[in-house]
Prior knowledge:
Layout: H1 8-12, H2 19-22, E1 24-29, H3 44-60, E2 63-68, H4 89-104, E3 113-118, H5 130-137, E4 141-145, H6 160-168, H7 176-185, H8 190-202, H9 204-210, H10 214-223, H11 229-232, H12 235-247, H13 254-272
Parallel strand pairs: 1-2, 1-3, 3-4
Amino acid sequence: MAGPIVSGEQLxxxxxxxxxxxxxxxxxxxxxxxxxxxxxxxxxxxxxxQDWCNQIARxxxxxxxxxxxxxxxxxxxxxxxxxxxxxxxxEFYSKLEDFVKWHMRxxxxxxxxxxxxxxxxxxxxxxxxxxxxxxxxxLPVTSxxxxxxxxxxxxxxxxxNAVLEIVAKGGEHAYILEYSLMAxxxxxxxxKLDALNEVASKDPVEALRRWxxxxxxxxxxEHGGSEFDxxxxxxxxxxxxxxxxxxxxxxxxxxxxxxxTELVVDHFCERMLED
Length: 275
């Protein structure tokens, strides 16, 4: 007499996740070595992207395969001033394609599509190569940048309007929102934040000189030469810089980070499951 058996077809229907979602192969790509100021680790963007992917996997059942350890920057070669490992976009894409191919050949399941979660603004042009990567892999590829699923509501947080204005004008780098996202995850050094804010309280311009990546790469805008004029075209960076010089500190709020993280993760889940 044959013993009990669970068929693959039966097993596909087990649990809270659809078989289609479970067959999404998800990767993260961000920046593993970039300045965000004294309190923040060099792999800030990568830690955020990896956390988002883990949360997306828990919510949807998608398979988080790997973190792609390369990055580029739309600023071009001047990005080496705050991101020493910068490589041009075409080199970045070539390395990314090889990396994803290597992993796809070794999966234990047959994926229906690939989703790449982008955690670094400098990689924002990657979706323009989705068709190329789809052809190389033989299945659909979608690269997704961070967004939100709804309004960020936190009326009791005094700097909220400044945060929303900065985001609406083009986004920030190493300021209130990003610091709060990292604080929520437990990756921010509060002692180093206190040291930064102590300098800023006396002279925010000096703080920008010491840690030029903060407040929308504000130190490069404030103290750099004409080679950094490209940064001045980002209204979000300019707004963050002006706010920092007036506020004389970087405000950090873990609850802001938690609320923003929830909206970002929900946005990714919605976009990923659209098709």
